[in-house]
């Protein structure tokens, strides 16, 4: 088998060092030895070792193990992922156990059991590999989170209502207080939740978004708390739930008002106890998450109607943030429109566009029942369908529908009308399938299936 791993042995017994080196060289790619622990840290600065074998006592007549423990602390201070295996004299088992409590991974005795020594060192090497892999994954996760967050839209608004929201975010983001964000659909609740996460002490950890309204009752516990292999028919392997996945970071529970009453108890228990039990499991798993919940429902009214647990509302509602509708912050429409105009011209590789006064007036006068989400959709459609850099009022397609001119269809056959509607959607969007799917209220894969079905 190919030799792997770099090993450093620290012991004041030259004969023992020679014996170790002779025995272990065929199994490791590098075996270095030093007989003076004072050289240890300088050696670690020269090379990176996977496993360090360290004697517990160096001075003659001393067998307290304090020297070994001291050098262990120095090694771990230099490299917290170091894997240290102690070399102990016969009968020092109690001392070795103490060393493992201080951070050593294992120990071997000087009684020279070759099989045990080799298996211990190889296990320590595997542990070192696992630690380094985790370290690498954490670095990648941190960089990935930074990249994701850099590309997320940020909260925009100079209106008085939005400035009030910003002030509250500034005050609470740095705490671990649970937050409830309310507001109509499309007002930007997820964007505000991400803004809170980015300004929190957890910003280097994950932000996990869960759409509670999209999870079926039968899968609710599995999605949130995970499951063990064999817990139910399709549970072919262990699966981590959203709570555990978000541990250390932020868990965004969107559409929390849609959770059925009998499942709210399970949600409350997890938040309250800060632990979850996977479906099919029996051992609780501790979780450390900051909860941000969002809804367009009036939860206080739902409590009064016995549709929402009052104790759950208090748990998620330490701080409340109410987002205004777009009509309540009309002075922000121009800034938001230009933000999305810039975003989509870059996304679709188009020249920079600008809104003339008439186009901006048209945007500001619209009622925006779909709020910011509707505005975003309108600006994306405008960028796709126009080539002019100076956008006129007629270039802004607001409230344009795909309906036929006739009030009555030629046929009431659903399949016939679906085919016609799809054809018109594709024609209306200039062949842009993503936009056509949005207009039809379906996803792109479903649109392609229907195009194939109707041979369009």
Automatic annotation (TrEMBL):
Keywords, A to Z, come to: ATP-binding, DNA-binding, Nucleotide-binding, Phosphoprotein, Transcription, Transcription regulation
Q: Does the keyword Cell membrane apply?
A: no
ATP-binding recorded as keyword: yes
Q: Any idea what this protein is called?
A: Sigma-54-dependent Fis family transcriptional regulator
Q: Which residues form the Sigma-54 factor interaction domain?
A: 155-384
Q: Write down the PROSITE patterns for this protein, in alphabetical order.
A: RESPONSE_REGULATORY (PS50110), SIGMA54_INTERACT_2 (PS00676), SIGMA54_INTERACT_3 (PS00688), SIGMA54_INTERACT_4 (PS50045)
| InterPro entries, per database record | AAA+_ATPase (IPR003593), AAA_lid_NorR (IPR058031), CheY-like_superfamily (IPR011006), Homeodomain-like_sf (IPR009057), HTH_Fis (IPR002197), P-loop_NTPase (IPR027417), Sig_transdc_resp-reg_receiver (IPR001789), Sigma_54_int (IPR002078)
Name the source organism.
Marinifilum caeruleilacunae
**Locate the Response regulatory domain: which residues?**
6-125
Give all 4-aspartylphosphate modified positions: 55
| SMART domains the record matches | AAA (SM00382), REC (SM00448)
């Amino acid at each position: 088998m190919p030799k792997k791993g770099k090993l450093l042995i620290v012991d004041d017994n030259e004969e023992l060092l020679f014996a170790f080196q002779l025995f272990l060289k065929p199994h490791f790619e590098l075996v270095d030895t030093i007989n003076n622990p004072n050289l240890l840290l300088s050696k670690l600065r020269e090379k990176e070792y996977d496993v360090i074998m360290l004697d517990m006592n160096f001075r003659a007549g001393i067998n307290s193990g304090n020297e070994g423990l001291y050098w262990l602390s120095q090694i771990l201070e230099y490299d917290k992922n170091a894997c240290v295996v102690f070399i102990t004299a016969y009968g020092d088992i109690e001392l070795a156990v103490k060393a493992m409590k201080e951070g050593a991974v294992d120990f071997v005795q000087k009684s020279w059991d070759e099989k045990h020594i080799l298996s211990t060192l190889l296990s320590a090497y595997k542990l070192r590999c696992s630690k380094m892999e985790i370290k690498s994954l954490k670095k990648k996760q941190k960089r990935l989170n930074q990249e994701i967050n850099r590309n997320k839209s940020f909260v925009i608004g100079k209106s008085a209502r939005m400035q009030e929201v910003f002030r509250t975010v500034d005050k609470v983001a740095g705490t671990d207080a649970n937050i409830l964000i309310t507001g109509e659909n499309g007002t930007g609740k997820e964007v505000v939740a991400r803004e809170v996460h980015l300004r929190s002490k957890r910003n280097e950890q994950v932000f996990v978004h869960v759409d509670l309204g999209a999870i079926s009752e039968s899968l609710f516990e599995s999605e949130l708390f995970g499951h063990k292999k064999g817990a139910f028919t399709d549970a072919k392997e262990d699966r981590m739930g959203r709570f555990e996945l978000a541990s250390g970071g932020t868990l965004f529970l969107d559409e929390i008002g849609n959770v059925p009453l009998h499942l709210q108890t399970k949600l409350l228990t997890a938040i309250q106890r800060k632990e979850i039990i996977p479906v099919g499991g029996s051992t609780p798993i501790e979780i450390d998450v900051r909860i941000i919940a969002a809804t367009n429902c009036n939860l206080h009214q739902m409590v009064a109607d016995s549709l929402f647990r009052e104790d759950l509302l208090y748990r998620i509602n330490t701080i409340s943030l109410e987002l205004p509708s777009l009509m309540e912050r009309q002075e922000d429409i121009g800034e938001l429109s230009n933000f999305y105009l810039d975003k989509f011209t870059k996304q679709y590789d188009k020249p920079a566009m600008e809104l003339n006064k008439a186009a901006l007036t048209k945007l500001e006068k619209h009622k925006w029942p779909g709020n910011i989400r509707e505005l975003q959709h309108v600006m994306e459609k405008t960028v796709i369908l126009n080539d002019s850099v100076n956008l006129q009022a007629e270039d802004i397609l607001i409230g344009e529908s795909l309906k036929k001119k006739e009030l009555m269809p030629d046929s009431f056959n659903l399949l016939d009308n679906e085919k016609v509607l799809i054809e018109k959607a594709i024609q209306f969007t200039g062949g842009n399938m993503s936009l056509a799917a949005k207009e039809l209220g379906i996803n792109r894969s479903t649109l392609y299936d229907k195009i194939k079905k109707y041979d369009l």
